[in-house]
UniProtKB/TrEMBL annotation:
Keyword terms: Membrane, Transmembrane, Transmembrane helix
Location in or out of the cell: Membrane
Sequence similarity: Belongs to the TerC family.
Pfam families recorded: TerC
Major place of residence: membrane
Membrane-traversing stretches: 12-35, 47-68, 74-91, 112-137, 157-179, 191-208, 228-245
Protein name per UniProt: TerC family protein
Domain of life of the source: Bacteria
InterPro entries in alphabetical order: CHP03716_TM_YkoY, Integral_membrane_TerC
Length: 261
């Protein structure tokens, strides 16, 4: 790879790391809530088993999606999923949050293995979000001389794989630091899900540019014009989430920091 190609791949990887960090913090809070009723030793085991299953799922699903990613129907489903999940989380945070809190407070605690299953399912759902977002960002990168893996260029596969591994590391070890950041800058969570939705739009553009669909001008999805539009909007969302978010000085809730250690 030449320097310009390495810089472009490195830039996408940095975006993935930031996005994974914010989403992992939100996801870690959900998982922490699931295990908080267990004794400390069981709590750690439940997190270990759940995250271990997520690790296996991420690798398996990555190899599967590498064969399916060139099918425009799969691309369309992925685009709709990312846009839908972003809309759902934004509605949940800004519209449905009080109702969900009330509903959650009346739920019964689960036993150890049922909690493990719940953590596993939550991890899988989060993994799908992360993998699809990574794929949507990676497929627009220039091709490399690396051998193809499935239907993916070797460089694209490496970026997606790195993003998945980083996501798991952040989920387990660095999430509490992102939780503190989110507590200080709560607007970053909204910005993260807006970015997920915008990445879904990017995958939709890629789908509409597919030769079997051809609803956009040939090559538009990989054109400089679209790249400039995409990255300009993405950076605007990120900057807006940082600068428009009022910084809070209150400490993070005790239960959140304790469960994420």
């Amino acid at each position: 790879m030449d320097i310009s190609l390495l810089m472009e791949y490195g830039w996408v990887l940095l975006i993935l790391i930031g996005l994974e960090g914010i989403l992992a913090a939100d996801n870690a809070l959900v998982i922490a809530t699931m295990v908080k009723h267990l004794p400390e030793k069981q709590r750690k085991k439940a997190l270990f088993y759940g995250l271990g299953g997520a690790f296996v799922f991420r690798f398996a699903s990555l190899f599967v999606i590498s064969y399916l990613v060139q099918i425009w129907q799969v691309q369309a489903i992925g685009a709709l999923y990312l846009i839908g999940i972003a809309a759902y989380h934004l509605l949940k945070k800004h519209v449905l949050k009080p109702k969900l809190k009330k509903s959650h407070s009346t739920s019964k605690s689960s036993g150890f293995w049922m909690t493990v299953v719940k953590v596993e399912l939550a991890d899988i759902a989060f993994a799908v979000d992360s993998i699809l977002a990574a794929v949507a960002l990676a497929v627009m990168l220039p091709a490399t001389s690396l051998p193809q893996i499935g239907g993916l260029d070797g460089g694209h596969f490496a970026v997606i794989l790195a993003g998945g591994i980083i996501g798991l590391i952040i989920m387990r070890f660095a999430a509490r630091y992102f939780v503190i950041l989110l507590d200080k800058r709560p607007g970053l969570e909204t910005a993260a899900y807006l970015i997920v939705g915008w990445v879904g739009v990017k995958l939709a553009v890629y789908t509409l540019d597919h030769p079997e669909v051809a609803l956009l001008a040939d090559g538009f999805a990989k054109s400089l014009t679209w790249k400039l539009i995409f990255w300009s909007v993405l950076l605007t969302i990120g900057a807006g989430g940082w600068f428009l978010s009022k910084e809070k000085t209150e400490p993070v809730a005790k239960v959140e920091t304790a469960l994420l250690k």
